[in-house]
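Example for tutorial group B:
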């Protein structure tokens, strides 16, 4: 039952991250989805994957908070509590299959793979691509901020 509740939390957080108007609130909901996904991995015994998910989630959230705060415009209207309730109900409805079609947990499965081999032998492409995505986002933010700075300097000179 705990796994189903955590998976419902992941779906609800993901729905909030997609549909909230303010970028900072969306990033906070995305952080919740990352952390709950990490918890889900840990509860299923995949500790290495949980650690990687947590680390990638923290890095991604840091970059998105920075970009969301500096680059996004504030919406004119505040998020209504009714909208949050509707999004929560939508997420709960989307997570119903997790309650009805749950998969049993394997017991006694242990792995004796060293950490380095698990990281670079089995997940090398995954880890490199996630790093590339974070680097691309950071580079994009730097370019946008550089252009904004250039435009501000031009307007000050005139």
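The residue assignment follows.
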């Amino acid at each position: 039952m705990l796994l189903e509740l955590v998976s419902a939390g992941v779906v609800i957080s993901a729905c909030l991250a997609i549909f909230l108007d303010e970028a900072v609130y969306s990033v906070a909901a995305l952080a919740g989805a990352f952390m709950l996904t990490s918890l889900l991995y840990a509860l299923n015994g995949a500790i290495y994957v949980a650690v990687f998910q947590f680390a990638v989630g923290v890095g991604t959230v840091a970059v998105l908070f920075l970009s969301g705060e500096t680059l996004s415009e504030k919406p004119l209207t505040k998020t209504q509590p009714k909208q949050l309730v509707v999004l929560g109900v939508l997420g709960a409805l989307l997570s119903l299959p997790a309650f009805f079609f749950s998969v049993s947990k394997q017991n006694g499965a242990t792995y004796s793979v060293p950490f380095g081999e698990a990281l670079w032998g089995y997940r090398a492409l995954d880890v490199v691509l996630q790093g590339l995505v974070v680097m691309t986002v950071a580079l994009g933010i730097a370019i946008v901020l550089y252009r904004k700075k250039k435009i501000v300097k031009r307007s000050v000179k005139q």
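The chain has a mean pLDDT of 77. Compare this with the pattern of hydrophobic and polar residues in the output above.
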